[in-house]
Fold this sequence. Notes:
Blueprint: H1 19-38, E1 47-51, H2 56-70, E2 77-84, H3 94-101, E3 106-110, H4 113-120, H5 128-145, E4 150-152, H6 157-171, E5 180-182, E6 189-191, H7 199-209, H8 217-220, H9 226-240, H10 244-252, H11 271-287
Parallel strand pairs: 1-2, 1-4, 2-3, 4-6
Antiparallel strand pairs: 5-6
Helix pairs in contact: 1-2, 1-7, 2-7, 6-9, 6-10
Amino acid sequence: xxxxxxxxxxxxxxxxxxxxxxxxxxxxxxxxxxxxxxxxxxxxxxxxxxxxxxxxxxxxxxxxxxxxxxxxxxxxxxxxxxxxxxxxxxxxxxxxxxxxxxxxxxxxxxxxxxxxxxxxxxxxxxxxxxxxxxxxxxxxxxxxxxxxxxxxxxxxxxxxxxxxxxxxxxxxxxxxxxxxxxxxxxxxxxxxxxxxxxxxxxxxxxxxxxxxxxxxxxxxxxxxxxxxxxxxxxxxxxxxxxxxxxxxxxxxxxxxxxxxxxxxxxxxxxxxxxxxxxxxxxxxxxxx
Length: 288
């Protein structure tokens, strides 16, 4: 699938020729394709709104999706979208120039949600939740206006794990970011094709390609966030036992309700009766 010719999407022009980068690219393509197939994300003829923040993750997402489409493996139409939220110092020309140069169909939307967040959140408070809600609402609106069936986000495997542990430690529930979700209105899907991809690989790929990465100063400037604490904890576990993140992620795909404690997912109260009925059925079968 990977080759040395120029017969590739412009997003891959100038890609490093080294073996390690070629292996990385191949792994990313395989993992994204596996996530799309596993969770039934793509239907022929769909139109996807691919959200692009300018960070390493969204650049990786954009490139790999276009690679799959270029190779005839993703039968959907892709529209890149950047929502400029009015953050001070945000380099507003970087993404439009990049997307135009790469020949990527796109829409740039300006909505000053930054001012709303600053006005509503007290100094020292966590901005991420409100910022995310405002961003999500605008992206859903844009998707409807553009005739898109699915909003594509750049959350990767480590984001999903961090969210799981945040819910576990602070929310008192077992939940995370699902790879695919139907919105409350029931008219749009939300999908995360990077669900099987590590943050480390996203960084290596985007930096290796030399994409113009834009940092998220709004979130990054807040110290002591719950997510940062969880990330540090996972980093420490990974350092002590390499591969720990992947093992933990696999557990999210291997859930056994009968070995947890949620009575709405498993009939613990009827367990004894079920066993008795099963034994009686076996005895009756044996008599005939």
